[in-house]
What we know:
By secondary structure, this protein is α+β, with helices and mostly antiparallel strands. The protein has helices at 13-21, 50-58, 92-104, 130-139, and strands at residues 2-8, 28-31, 36-44, 65-76, 81-89, 118-125, 146-149, 151-158, 165-173, 177-180. The two termini are 17 Å apart.
Amino acid sequence: MxxxxxxxFNELKSYFIELQKLLPNNARLSLVRSFHLTLKFLGxxxxxxxxxxIRILNGIEFEKFGAFTDSIGIFPTENYIRVVWVGLxxxxxILELQQKxxxxxKNMFKKEKDFQPHITLARVKxxxxxxxxxxxxxxxxxxxxxxxxxxxxxxxxxxxxxxPVYEDLEVFNQHLGSNRS
Length: 181
């Protein structure tokens, strides 16, 4: 099964949908329907490994914290545009949680490289004019919307013709451990 670890941001779904409506239409866009920040992508994992992953993640202690939507940007570069994203501030607590997740699973998975906290709005294919696409993206004003981060999740992703279908396998609450779903 295909797994990743994420913080859910669907509490701000209506706001992210409004931002998606502002995206330039001179490219083929695949709009995201579910909003999350991926802390660690695990990829294909044997089902019998899920319990061990849950046990390990259950040991992570963290305090709830707030984060704000901050900016809009693209990955990986202005010449090779593949993703439009919303950034978050402050990054410190998110980075700290991501590092705890990464460190706890280091014996099972490779460590993340160049982790940057973001929420994907859309995947981009073939912008007709990259410069004008970037110019239009940079005109979008992102409001500072606050979200309280009090948990993270182990998520199963099933690919379908209509896009990925996400299912929470486990929710890990601050330092309290997990809530079996």
